[in-house]
Write a structure and sequence with these properties.
The structure holds 2 protein chains of 2 kinds. Chain A is an all-alpha fold. Chain A has a domain at 97-272: MetI-like fold, CATH 1.10.3720. Helix content of chain A is 72%, strand content 0%. In chain A, helix 1 packs antiparallel against helix 13 (273-301). The longest helix of chain A is centred in the middle third of the chain and has 36 residues, at 89-124. Chain A is flat. Chain A starts with a helix and ends in a 13-residue tail after the last helix. Chain B has one domain: Orthogonal Bundle (MetI-like fold), CATH 1.10.3720. Chain B is built from 12 helices and no strands. Chain B has helices at residues 2-14, 27-32, 40-49, 52-70, 113-148, 150-165, 168-179, 183-210, 213-220, 225-261, 273-282, 291-318. Classes of the chains: A mainly alpha, B mainly alpha.
Chain lengths: 314, 324
């Protein structure tokens, strides 16, 4: 197991290096006017040239890349170019992270608390009205673009209950609608997968044997089916939780929540390279760590899964 | 015991040669033996027809596609991009509510929403179908190689890790900034990011199937790899491939809405469901104008839900375990 962890860590570092380098190089494909922002019109071509040189954009690309990695090793993520000029990117990010993290983790909790039991009930009453109702909900959420129902919720429910439309940190009631909207999608997906795995598990021979032996239906459900059905889900859980800090673009802009959602989009559109690189590094590290923790969690839930030598991985 | 043997003895007593007669040799009957007229696709189609909801939706979707294609040639259709003027005032006919002239009303600069919606549906359906097909082709090809070939496994896994972890949004944004927004840019951007999931999905299934006994037998008999993949493995996967593709079309259309939302979708001169919804979103706060969001949303939701349900029904039908 320890050897496996080391190998995985080493692989992850290589993957991260490739990703960050690839993004670094891709960003260099963008036109240069972007770095100047709104000030472009006021500058003479000479001034523009000086500005770009000061940013280090006139150095050979490998030198730029090298400088970037040297700073990174010192823990320096650089300063924002256009998003908030000369502010260290880490300050920008840390201001926003708490909002997205709070909403994200709350949404994960809510959706597990509702989605998983919903899936269990749907599997138990397969083909009956509850199952059909749940399937209808899942179809709706999967097939209708989320922006449409997010908007309808915001406009009509705030109308109906006479709630304020925008997020206000000090008024707890304004936390509710964004949270509900954020949870609708994950609830559907937890319910869908839970139902699928439960149904598959219920059809297995050992369940038939247990029934034939007269084991109580409750025991079968909770001891055997649920535990086995939860294994595939447990792999996605850590990544889901970690990646909530990326925030939700739609929700945060609809309710004006000052979180991380859309920060990456903004940063790329304004060509704020240091900010983009920092975000990419954070997001992909979290993704990779999440995947890894998922494997570990899966091995914990299911003792049959081992990550040692000679055993197949995933 | 005694009772039964008594009865049996009675039967044997009664049975005489007369009760049996030789059947005449029938050539036609002889031909039928050992031949079942099972056809995979016919059975699939038959079990699909049993799902009434899916069949209804399929007919409606086909009707919609047909209508969208012929709509510009029907009489009394307005142009989706022309700005109409109010005959009384001579100004642009802005935000006109649905009436007999403009069936779905006009938008904020006086374009006819009815024709814009159908033109937009045409664009979005085209994008969705092309992306789903390309994704399926690349995804299946890469996934099959990835799953089947042990030599390529390490390399493709590494490529996958990189593709998977570069946030999709970065690729989409860079593509649209570099290539300028257009239908082909959107299609290329979505295909670049979309095949990865499909490939992994196919790969996992192939890994499960590749070492089953019948494949070992095939390999020992010297069947070429391509034939094993095409004839032994992929037919097993038709149902789940169908399911994935039915999800890919709604997903592609949804991504187009998303790209438009962050300002990287098609230009407004190119109507699509994405930018119609985006235009409608801006007006959502004034209750009188909400029809401008509702109409395109209804059309979009109808298309995506239908594809999802049809795809699911077809996936069920394509699974030979469900055939009679």
């Amino acid at each position: 197991m320890i050897e496996y962890i080391w190998k995985r860590l080493l692989q992850s570092v290589v993957t991260l290096f490739i990703i960050v380098t690839a993004v670094f190089l891709l960003l260099r494909l963008l036109p240069e006017e972007g770095y100047l922002g709104a000030a472009a019109d006021k500058m003479t071509p000479e001034q523009q040239e000086i500005y770009l040189t000061n940013l280090g954009l006139r150095d050979p690309i490998l030198v730029q890349l090298g400088n970037f990695y040297i700073d990174l090793l010192r823990g320096d993520f650089g300063k924002s170019i256009t998003y908030r000029t000369d502010v260290p990117v880490m300050d920008i990010i840390s201001d926003k992270i708490m909002y997205s993290l709070t909403f994200g983790v709350a949404a994960v909790i809510v959706s597990i608390l509702i989605g998983v039991p919903l899936g269990i009930l749907m599997a138990q009453f397969k083909g009956r009205w509850l199952d059909r109702l749940g399937t209808g909900y899942i179809v709706f959420i999967v097939a209708v673009p989320s922006m449409v129902y997010f908007l309808l919720i915001q406009v009509y429910i705030t109308d109906f209950f006479n709630l304020p439309m925008l997020f206000d940190e000090d008024r707890p009631i304004t936390w509710v609608l964004p949270l509900i909207s954020l949870s609708l999608g994950p609830i559907a997906s937890y319910a869908m997968w839970m139902r699928r795995y439960m149904v598959d598990e219920l059809n297995k021979d050992y369940i038939k044997l247990a029934r034939a032996k007269g084991v109580k239906e409750r025991t079968i459900m909770f001891r055997h089916v649920l535990r086995n059905a939860f294994i595939p889900l447990s792999q996605y859980l850590p990544a889901t939780i970690l990646l909530t800090i990326t925030g939700s673009i739609y929700i945060e802009s609809l309710y004006s929540i000052p979180g991380m959602g859309g920060l990456l989009v903004d940063a790329i559109q304004r060509q704020d390279n240091p900010l983009v690189q920092a975000l990419v590094l954070i997001f992909s590290s979290l993704g990779i760590i999440g995947l890894f923790l998922g494997d570990v969690l899966m091995a914990l839930v299911d003792p049959r899964i081992k990550f040692g030598k000679g055993e197949s991985v995933r | 015991m005694g009772l039964y043997s008594e009865e049996i003895r009675n039967i044997t007593d009664k049975s005489t040669e007369q009760l049996f007669e030789f059947a005449a040799q029938d050539e036609d009957q002889a031909e039928k033996i050992g031949y079942s007229n099972y056809s995979y696709w016919r059975s699939t189609w038959q079990s699909f027809l049993k799902n009434k909801v899916a069949v209804t939706l399929l007919i409606l979707v086909l009707a919609l596609v047909l209508f969208v294609l012929i709509q510009p040639y029907l009489p009394n259709q307005k142009s989706p991009t022309e700005i109409y003027l109010d005959p009384d005032t001579g100004y642009q006919a802005r935000n006109v509510k649905p009436n007999e002239d403009f069936w779905f009303g006009t938008n904020s600069i006086g374009q006819d929403l009815w024709s814009r919606i159908w033109a937009g549906t045409r664009t979005s359906l085209f994008i969705g179908v092309v992306v789903a097909v390309v994704e399926a082709i690349i995804g299946i090809a890469v996934g099959a190689l990835w799953g089947y070939s042990r030599k390529l496994e390490g390399t493709i896994t590494h490529v996958y890790n990189v593709f998977e972890n570069i946030p999709t949004i970065i690729v989409l944004i860079l593509m649209s900034l570099i290539l300028r927004p257009s239908i082909s840019t959107i299609i290329i951007a979505m295909c670049i990011t979309g095949w990865v999931e499909m490939a992994r999905f196919i790969r996992n299934q192939i890994v499960i199937l590749r070492d089953r006994e019948y494949n070992l037998a095939s390999r020992t008999l010297g069947t070429p790899t391509s034939r094993i993949i095409l004839k032994n493995l992929l037919p097993y996967l038709i149902s789940i491939i169908m399911l994935r593709m039915s999800l890919a079309i709604p997903f592609a259309i949804g991504s187009e809405v998303f790209l438009t939302y962050i300002g990287l979708g098609l230009p407004v001169s190119e109507p699509s469901l994405g930018n119609l919804i985006n235009e409608g979103r801006v007006l959502m706060m004034s209750p009188d104008l909400r029809y401008q969001l509702l109409f395109p949303s209804i059309v979009l939701s109808f298309i995506t839900i239908s594809f999802y349900i049809i795809g699911n029904a077809f996936a069920d039908a394509a699974d030979p375990k469900n055939h009679v």
